[in-house]
Each structure stands twice: as structure tokens, then as C-alpha cells.
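Slide 14.
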Amino acid sequence: MDYLPLVLSILPFLVFIFLLFRKKTTLLLASFVTLFLYTILAIFYWQILGSALYISYVKGALLAFDIFIIIFGAIFFLELLKDLKIIKNISYYLSSLSADYRVQVILIAWFFEAFLEGTSGFGIPAAVAIPLLVGIGLSPFRALVVGLLGNSVASIFGAAGTPIKVGLATLSVANVPIFASIFNFVGVLIPVFMVWVATSGRPNRKKEFLEAVPFALLSGLLFLIPSYFGAKFLGQEFPTIIGSIVGLILVTISVKLRFLIPKNNVSLQKGNTEEDKKEKKVSALKSFMPYLILVGFLILAKVLIGHISIPLNLGFKTSFSLFNPGFIFIIVAILVSVIWKSKIKKLLNFSKTAFRGAIFPFLSIAAILAVVQIMINSGQNSSGLASVISLISDSFQSKLLPIFAPIAGAFGAFLTGSTTTSSVMFGTLLNSASLGIGFNTDIILSLLVVGAGLGSMMGLADILTAEAIVGVKNQETKVVKAVILPCLLCLVIIALIGLKIFQVI
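Slide 15: predicted structure.
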């Protein structure tokens, strides 16, 4: 057997990994180096047809453009809310529900962060939540770790379903949201780990932790159960949004009734400044109103135009979906700015910030998506060689694929800091591998995206961003050590469940 084609298929990917582990190499540079290597191999070794190479580049760019719009819109929307002090007021109302820091941690890092993940994604939720956690009294390092834990199970349906909608755009994924929401129930453990980290170093750590475990488990279920029904009846855009909203309402009732709440209130807060008190005068309804409008518009747009696509002929037939959450973010942001009488000049500044935040992820993902397309289309050649994706997927064709899938997802998210990018990197490969051995592709892809969500809690890019936010330096190794146990435990659980499912089938 000639192993050279397989080795050459894998080599650029190994270079990609090597570059990412170098501290001074950005995801953007690593992505374009990988694209360059695959292009060279495609032209000179696979002898790919020119039309196939062209299609690969254009499809990669078109799919990435969807992500650009989402990131731009999400940042634009968030910058406006930050300027209007809406984010700060929301955090106040969440914290005021209970004086207990353990309850506050779950409200902010589990529910509020999940809501931001559902409506924004791309590392934004942790960036917002971590300073709030410091504000309730956690040390910067503990706040960082807790915030990263929250950047996990909610992310598989983050940014209105982008990891599935865009990350698996070229695949049949009709049932992936439902299966993913089922596997995602492993996330019931995440709030428990949040409390474990938050209580570390405390004089009565064991007592404070055990008192909060029932509330943590309840909070996990109150998010995950509505998320499942959101996936079942509305699709990938809404599980995280619905789970966080419904869960927050139900957990608020639980707090008010003191149901499963820690017996003893323990506060870490030192009191509020006069400036804080002034900012808190904005009503709860007005603070949450922009997000309520956003959710309403997202649902309305999904119903009205979710099925409409514009056909395009770019030398090949494709289409552009009219429904993109990014457009909704922008529309709602403009509407909110009118209602709140924000200055047009500020909107221009927000758009500049949004563009700067979106352009580099767009370019990185465009390069990676182009690589994926080359891997798929490389079978259209004059050399007679099988496509790159076929060669690699054949090596994955094993009964252990249900174990490989979530691990691959977590590894991709760890390297890139993105659930979406991880889905892009491994989705087509695992889909081909599962078809080759007759496994249900929906289940395999579900394991992939859930694994990617779990891996997001230790995404290198997210860790570096979070460190910069709270002023923590050179603690990447320590942070990874702090989150790797919950990540691995959850991965093992879903991998074993996935393996058992295929054994039964």
C-alpha cells in the first residue's frame, strides 16, 4: 500500500498544529500557511482541476462571509449595549437576586453568559462575564476560570446556531440539533464545577461547596431541559437563547422561594460606589428590553425568511440565505439606538470596532473553509488519486469513531478557540468516515459539536483574551490545568454513551 498520499494529506494539518503551539503564531497566519500548502499539493501532486480549485476558494469565502456578518453584528450590538450601560445594569439585577456569591456565580457565568453566547458568541460572553465575576468578589484568576467554564455547553448553539448552521453548512444536519441537545445534558455538571472553583481557597470551602451543589445541579437542568425543546421545535438557532431565558426565569423563582438555595448566605461584595448606584436607576425592564427585542426579531425572521435563499451563479450554482442572525443584530442595534437616542457618531465608532473584531476571524475561517473545500474537491483531478478527505476519513473508519468524534471536536476548539472552526475542520472528515462504516452521521456530528463546545472552555485564544481582560499574565498552563478535569470528564461520559449507542444499534 502506498502511504505517501495519506502522509501528504495530513502533513499540512500537522504544520497547522505546530504553528498554533508557537506562542508568536496567530490563527490567521497558521490558517493561510495551511491553505498555501494544501494549494501547492492540490496543484502539483493531486493535479486538481482549475475549476475545482476556484470553487474551493469561492465557497470558502462565501461560507466565511456568513460568519463575518454574525461577528460584526454581534460586536456592534454589544458595543451599543455597553455604551448605554445596559450590560452593567443587567449584571446588577442578576446579582441583586441573591447576596450569596455562589448563587451570583451561577446566575452570571451560567445563565447570563449562556444568553450572551446564544445571542453573540465568538468569545464575547466570557469577556463580558469575567469582569462581572470580579465585581462580585472573586479573584481575577478564579473569575477567569469560572468564566471559561461557562464558555462551554452553551457554545454548541452559540451565535444563533452558527457552529451547526455554518460550521456544518455543507452537510445534512437535520437531526444534529436534537441529538446534540441530548448529549449536551452532560453539561449539568458544569455549574457544579463553577461552584467548586469559586469556593476554592475559602476557609469553609467544603461546607460552602456542598451547600451549593443542589442549586448548581438544578440550574444545570433548568437551562438544559428548555434547550432540548428549543432544538426539537425551533432548530439550532434558539436552544441556548431559550434555555438561558426560561432557565433564568425559573431559577429566579427558585431563589425567591429559597428552593435548594444554600442555607447560609455568604457574600464577597464590598459595597457599591456612588457611581454604581446612579447606574442602577435604570429599570430592569428597560435593561432587558434590547435582548427581548432581539429574540423577538430572530424568531420572526426565522419564521418569515428562514427558508428563503437567493440563487447565485458564480461559475457554479450556489445560494445565499436571507436569514443571517448578524443582520438581525444590526437591525435591532439601530432600532435600540433610536429608542435610547444614541448619537449617530457613536454608531460609526461601534461599526469600526465591530469591523476590526470581525475581519481577522473572517479571514482565518475563510482560509480554513477553503482548505476543507480543497480536501473535498481534490478528487476532481487528472492524477487518478482519491480526494484528500477520502484518504483521511478512511483512516478514521473504526468502531471507535464515537470516541474519536468528541475528542476531535474538543481538540479543534482548544487549538482555535472556536466551536464553529472546530466543526469546519473536522465535520466533513467525520461525516465521510461515518458513512464509510455505516454509522449514523447525525449522531457522529452531534458528538463532534458537543465535544467542540466542551473544548471551548480551554480554547487558547479565549484564555489569552480573558487574561488580558482581568490583567492576568502568563497563566495559560495554570488555567488549562484548572479546566481540563471537567472537560475530560464530560468528554469521557459522552464518548462512552456514543460508543454504547452504536454497540446497541
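Speaker note: The beta strands are 309-313, 317-321.
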